[in-house]
């Protein structure tokens, strides 16, 4: 039986405290005090300065120790509020747990996603529902459930309410709030007055929506994710945490089967066991609207909400990308799972159109259009960039410089160091390596001068993937993660996740990608070669190494 006194713990790993977080923490501390509960900020860096107003509230406690240490004797007393948990928080959880832990997302070395780290450490998890909440709302809802014994579903919420600053200015808040007795959303005191430009502050001090995927294994954009049947089967596969669609354009791609093809081969060119691919494909012949229709249909067939969602891969002009973002964000409001958008700027096979992600200038144009689109929607969705394999340092630097240039320099009227962050939530590295050639073996006893006979049509050149790409993709993931970590600030570094893809086909490849710094691992060629079984094999291989328990 749990103690009747409850403690709400927010892990705060950042040496700084933004103005918005301070307001949230004050609200949590005051409400905890009124409810006879405690509020603890844990894992505080030694340099962290606790505001006086917070220290004065008796229910509040500042802790430099992490929750693992605080509850070393009995982890089972702690409930982790986790969007990827298998069950929702219920009033009975008040009888089971003493402490409720909110993982937080920012922090220095090492955490980038504290919730997933804590999850791995075996804390029991519970969900608070599908709509993103501010930290004080999450604690409020938890308290209503575990102390007030109100089931989650019976709490009155206001989703994305409009907040009026004055007669002329208002903004729609991209979060779920608890509805107060006056019918208004409950928010920290003073919040509308403190900051007129709330958008970047409220999204976790400027961080765009987090890209959360569990298990951290996915398919990446490829021809085996083209039809609704492909997508349904991928969605049903229990060993993956999300499904990526094949890249589509708003108007569809003029696919010509005579020109756009792929072939499998063995990277040693001597073994019959295929482990690599070469393709001259462009994009899906189906339009983005068609994919969004598929996604709606798959959603409608679901019995309940699910945390497993879709990554919608798109490409086109910068204007197309802005329009795609709005379409996907709007669809995200109608479906029962999360959606993210991945911008494919890295296909090597489009004549006269070099992959834009090789050029800082082009990348910047895309990011500018994206930012404008993001500012026009009420529900932000995570956006990723699919990058080509980079082969030398200045190419990486171009990517990082373009991302940095996309950080808004507006301080939102609040002064201080709280500014917006780069609008990119993840980077998927890498796409295929262009300009590769696969030749058919010469007929036996042909002369040395036998002309080359490419396997693919036209020039025969195409994008290579699979085993021979693996070391290059590992190098890209490693370098991009390191460069982002070196930025190490709220604007760019920590919130940007990396999806590692290139030549993964087994548990060992998965582990190498993770070791190189991938938060999520993707694959395409191995799916084409082995079907969905490849995901189950990877999960099985990881379990085997862990002696039967989950190896993610
Ligand atoms: C036949 C084929 C078609 C692909 N089509 C796309 C695509 O439409 N969009 C995209 O972003 N990546 C595409 N890719 C790249 C993959 O998503 C992946 O980034 C790359 O193949 C490396 O992973 P792999 O070694 O596991 O195949 C394609 C790859 C293959 C093999």
From TrEMBL:
GO BP of this protein: pyrimidine nucleotide biosynthetic process
A GO molecular function held by the record: protein-arginine omega-N monomethyltransferase activity
Location of the region described as Disordered in the Swiss-Prot/TrEMBL record: 440-459
Classification via Pfam families: DHO_dh, SFM1-like
Record keywords: Cytoplasm, Oxidoreductase
Highest taxon, organism lineage: Eukaryota
Segments passing through the bilayer: none
Record InterPro entries: Aldolase_TIM, DHOD_1A, Dihydro_DH_chainA_dom2, Dihydroorotate_DH_cat, SFM1-like
Dihydroorotate dehydrogenase catalytic domain mapped to chain residues: 275-544
Any one annotated GO CC term: cytoplasm
Statement: the UniProt record of this protein carries the keyword Oxidoreductase: yes
Protein family (similarity comment): Belongs to the dihydroorotate dehydrogenase family. Type 1 subfamily.
Name by which UniProt lists this protein: Dihydroorotate dehydrogenase (fumarate)
Native source species: Corynascus novoguineensis
């Amino acid at each position: 039986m749990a103690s009747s006194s409850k403690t709400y713990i927010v892990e705060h790993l950042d040496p700084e405290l933004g103005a918005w977080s301070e307001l949230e923490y004050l609200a949590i501390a005051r409400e905890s005090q009124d409810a006879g509960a405690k509020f603890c900020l844990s894992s505080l860096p030694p340099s962290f300065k606790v505001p006086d107003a917070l220290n004065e509230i008796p229910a509040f406690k500042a802790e430099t120790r992490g929750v693992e240490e605080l509850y070393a004797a009995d982890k089972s007393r702690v409930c982790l509020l986790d969007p990827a948990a298998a069950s929702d928080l219920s009033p009975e959880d008040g009888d089971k747990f003493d402490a409720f832990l909110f993982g937080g997302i920012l922090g220095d070395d090492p955490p980038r996603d504290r919730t997933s780290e804590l999850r791995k450490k075996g804390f029991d998890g519970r969900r608070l529902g599908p709509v993103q909440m501010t930290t004080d709302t999450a604690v409020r809802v938890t308290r209503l459930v575990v102390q007030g014994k109100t089931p989650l579903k019976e709490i009155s919420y206001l989703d994305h309410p409009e907040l009026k600053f004055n007669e002329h200015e208002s903004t729609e808040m991209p979060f779920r709030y608890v509805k107060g007795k006056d019918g208004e959303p409950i928010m920290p005191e003073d919040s509308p007055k403190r900051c007129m430009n709330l958008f970047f502050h409220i999204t976790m001090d400027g961080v765009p929506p987090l890209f959360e995927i569990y298990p951290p294994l996915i398919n990446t954009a490829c021809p085996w994710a083209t039809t609704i049947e492909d997508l349904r089967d991928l969605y049903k596969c229990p060993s993956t945490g999300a499904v990526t669609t094949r890249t589509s354009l708003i108007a569809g791609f003029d696919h010509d089967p005579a020109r756009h093809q792929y072939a499998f081969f063995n990277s040693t060119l001597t073994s019959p066991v295929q482990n690599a691919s070469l393709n001259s494909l462009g994009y899906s012949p189906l339009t983005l609207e068609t994919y969004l229709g598929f996604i709606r249909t798959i959603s409608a067939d679901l019995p309940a909400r699910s945390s497993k969602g879709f990554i919608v891969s798109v490409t086109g002009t910068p204007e197309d990308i802005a329009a795609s973002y709005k379409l996907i964000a709007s669809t995200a409001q109608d479906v029962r799972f999360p959606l993210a958008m991945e911008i494919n700027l890295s296909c090597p096979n489009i004549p006269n159109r070099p992959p834009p992600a090789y050029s800082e200038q082009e990348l910047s144009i895309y990011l500018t259009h994206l930012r404008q689109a993001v500012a026009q929607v009420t529900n932000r969705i995570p956006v990723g960039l699919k990058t080509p394999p980079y082969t030398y340092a200045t190419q990486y630097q171009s990517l990082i410089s373009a991302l940095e240039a996309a950080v808004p320099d507006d301080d939102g009227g609040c002064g201080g160091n709280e500014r917006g962050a780069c609008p990119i939530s993840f980077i998927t590295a890498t796409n295929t390596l262009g300009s590769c050639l696969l030749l058919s073996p010469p007929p036996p006893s042909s002369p040395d001068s036998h002309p080359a006979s490419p396997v693919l049509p036209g020039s025969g050149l195409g994008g290579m993937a699979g085993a021979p790409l693996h070391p290059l993709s590992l190098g890209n993931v490693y370098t991009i993660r390191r460069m982002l970590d070196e930025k190490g600030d709220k604007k760019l570094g920590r919130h940007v996740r990396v999806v590692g893809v290139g030549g993964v086909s087994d548990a060992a490849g998965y582990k190498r990608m993770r070791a190189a710094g991938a938060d999520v691992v993707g694959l395409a060629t191995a799916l084409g070669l082995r079907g969905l079984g490849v995901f189950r094999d990877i999960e099985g291989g990881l379990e085997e190494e862990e002696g039967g328990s989950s190896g993610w």
